What does this fold into?
Amino acid sequence: MRSDLGFRLSNYLTLGLACICLGYAEQFYLPGITIFVVLVLLLLAAAFVAEGRRWSLPIRASNVVGLVLAAGSGAWVTLCLVRPRAAALEDYPLPLALLPYLGPLLPVLLVAKLFRPKRAADVWALQGMGLMQVGLGCVLADDSFFGVLLLAYLAGSVWFLAEFHLQREVAGRSEPALGSRPASRSAYPVGRWTLAVMAVGLLLFLLIPRFGATQWSLLGPLHRPGDSEPGQTGFSEMIDLNRSGTLAVNDEVALVVYAENADGSPKTDLNPDQRWRGAVLDRYYDGRWVSGSLVQQRSERGFGMPFRRPVESVPLADRLPDLGPQQYFLNFTIDRGEVGGLILAEPVVVHPRRQMVPVARQPGRPPPDIQFLRDDWTLLPREQEKVSYRQVVVPLEEPDLSMPVRLSGQYISQISWQRNSSLKEWTDQLLRDLAARAAYQLSPDDLQYIEAGSVRFLRPEYHEKVARALTDYLATSGDYTYTLELRRHERRLDPIEDFLRNVKQGHCERYAAALALMLRSQGIPARVVQGFRGGENQEDGHYILRHSDAHSWVEALVPRVQPNGQVEMHWLTLDGTPSIEAPTPSRFSPAWWLDHSQRLSQEAWKEFVIGYDRQQQTDLWQGWRSLAEHPDWRTLGAGAVRLVPWLALAPLVLLGLRVARRLRAGRRAALGPSLSEVVFYDRLLTILARRCQLRRGPAQTPREFGEAARQLLQGIPAAASLADVPVQAADLFYRVRYGRLPLSAQEEQEMNRRLGQLDAALNPAPAAAG
It folds into this structure.
């Protein structure tokens, strides 16, 4: 085994872990990066073997490889700029949008230096590239498994630093002393100091106050404070189908609405299934549904490039339109930090002739800085956190069918088609199966398509029947069930396709997102609506909406022929969420235990690392304070309870350190001489410091210090004949310290004699006496 094997292994292992960290973080944005990372890991293994055999590319060949890689990198960046499916480029500033696509360039730069001759500076350059990969991975990923990879990389980095220190210590030595043993590579000192530093760092992390946002995400411009937290039920203006885990039910109050009749009396008979409209999500890519209106709003503030369609918005009026004798009024006072957005009750009715907005400011209140979106029938918030407004509502003849709408052809085309050929094939086959069943009121004659190049669109007159059939299938077939446990099965598939084909269990967001994409696969314009459903009737006109009442549904654009023959377009409300609960999994199965452990680790990672903020900090320390004052585990805060499993690892760590210490003590006893027999070297350092003001630097090895001392002594006539003493002392120091061969009595006597001569030669006192 070569003496530098540990150093080389730690170097390449750390670089490999850095590549794995980046590859895992990039897999959402670049699904094919796994193959690329495997290739880089194979090149790292080849470079490890080649370096062990003292083989490397010539400088000229390395430069050629670098030029080829640079040209390929430039082509890759150009492709990312012009590729039509780079959806993120449409919504974000160019540097931000290119961030995930620039990630593969870092392993490419690393490969360019792998097979070159390496000096210390080259090794540090490679490790710097690895650190950049891990840094980018920390920006792009936020789950607990990435945290495990990050800890593995940090452990590898500590090992590399320790090996580098040992390598530098022995790099300047002459040939090893006869019979010397290999240098000790005990991990105990390194592990002891690493754990000590980690303990101090953890304490500082828990104690230092935090201000502002604690979590950054590439999709941060689309996420606003107040949106439901990952892992909890609640309203959000974005659906991320890549998440997994179990949602916790949040029963906290989101808002309170006051309803009154036209005569001013409290209205106490709202529909128990009343829908409250919050946000319209009409854009889907990479497993996320987002609001085009919200994207444009953030773009106008400098967050990114504008959405393709202009969003028509109008300010609120000072008075409400008169919708007739059946109208009633709803009064909203909303804290956006609590709700996450602005809410309107369904149906939203715009005056058919005057097109007056059905929302106005409340009398006696300052005008809210919000806009009404005509296409979305939602409210676009501006800067105010607390807003008050009033809505007029009138029942419609068909509760699930909106009033006639007028939309631009550009917008309709954008919500009519979604590129996913495999999902379209699956939906086509499903519709043929449903047409053969009488329960879905669909016949083969209803599946008539229009050919548009290579794409087939369902004829518009059949949009409503097909939409209702697909909705009934999801909600009532029994093939799909409701659960708050969110899972993924085949991550290579689109999350919606994976849900429809394999998982078949989820909550309302899953079903709304899936139904909208199924409709789009048939050319039916569809979008997802986020909001609330229901509410607690207080019997005095007040209705309490909780975060657990959050709900998602779908709107499909369907035509209706009027008696006069005119075709009008309406939004059809569809809800494919089934009422059948999924069976409870066995609490004692290994699969459940693994899934449960993963969810707990994910929650702990989100709560105490990624999302650890001032509120979490306050709750944590108040929980410990309460426990100290009242020793009852029931008084401990929920956050502190989650720390108990982690704190349970402390005795195991201490036990491991104790065992390692005993093993180290036994090994040192077996090796023979004590490492304390280097007093002669300490004497040398004392002489040079006192007589020559020469001290060893923090990063200076004994050999380097000995060479520096020899050059200094050669310039002093009285000590020139003793200039080799520091180098000889360094060699003996290496032999005792690393070779574990103590000095013989004659060697120790000779070294002490020469050190005495050196001290006398450097002492100016005799010269002064003469």
